[in-house]
Amino acid sequence: MPNTSSRRPTLFEAPLRLSPGRAIGFIGPSIALTLGFLTLALTNQKGLILQGVLKLTPANATLFYSVVSAWMGLAIFPTACALAWKRIWLSQRVGFVEEGILLPSGFWSADEVLIPYLQLAEAAVVEIGSERLLTLSFPGRCFRIGSSWLPSEQAFDQVLERVQTGIQNEPDTVA
């Protein structure tokens, strides 16, 4: 099991934070949909047919729109607050030291774990649209670093280069 480390000096480090654009990209459309359903609930005078199977009267359609709007509003507000709290107060980083990689011990934790390069089973990059995702696999866990969680694409490239260099420079343990 990896050792938990305190905040320690590194050879290289990059902060892990959600970019404001990504947060707004998630929260903005969600708020727009919530307000759209709220508007439908407040102004509805028609029935609703869902998938040609479920037919709702105007009163039931209004209730449906109200429930969807309330559910979305109750899901969005806590999510927005949690993301804002994580962005502002929680300081996470990926760091590189001689013996391995320092990673956050969890999504909501500032504690770090040291993963020796020898324990790193796989490092792979996957591209999904404009997002690049580095997956680090080691015994009992998998850690993903998205390019949008780093300050820039150059920081992502540096992290990827450091991972590859650390793996290549790790001495073999053949006895």
| Structure classification | alpha+beta
* SSE topology string: EEHEEHEEEEEEH
In helices, the fraction of residues equals: 40-55%
Strand content: 25-35%
Number of strands: 10
Question: What is the radius of gyration computed over CA atoms, rounded to a whole number of angstroms?
Answer: 23 Å
Provide a count of the helices: 3
CATH superfamily of the largest domain: Pleckstrin-homology domain (PH domain)/Phosphotyrosine-binding domain (PTB)
Major sheet attributes: 5 strands, antiparallel
Task: Supply the number of structural domains.
Answer: 2
| CATH fold type of the largest domain | PH-domain like
Taking pLDDT < 50 over at least 5 consecutive residues as the criterion, the unreliable ranges are 1-5
Quaternary state, please? Answer: single chain
CATH class type of the largest domain = Mainly Beta
Which CATH architecture of the largest domain would you pick? Answer: Roll
Separation of the first and last Cα atoms = 22 Å
Q: Judging from the principal axes of the Cα atoms, what is the shape?
A: elongated
* pLDDT averaged residue by residue: 82
Strand order of the main beta sheet, please? 1-7-6-5-2
Written description of the protein model:
It is a single chain. Strand 9 (131-138) and strand 10 form a beta hairpin. The longest helix has 32 residues, at 58-89. The two termini are 22 Å apart. The chain folds into 2 domains: 3-17 and 92-169, PH-domain like (Roll), CATH 2.30.29; 21-89. The radius of gyration is 23 Å and the shape is elongated. The protein has a 5-stranded antiparallel sheet, covered by helices on one side. It has helices spanning 20-43, 58-89, 153-169; strands at 3-5, 12-15, 48-50, 54-56, 93-97, 100-104, 112-116, 122-128, 131-138, 141-146. It contains 3 helices and 10 strands. The protein has 175 residues and is α+β, with helices and mostly antiparallel strands. Helix 1 (20-43) packs antiparallel against helix 2 (58-89). Residues 1-5 have low confidence and may be disordered.
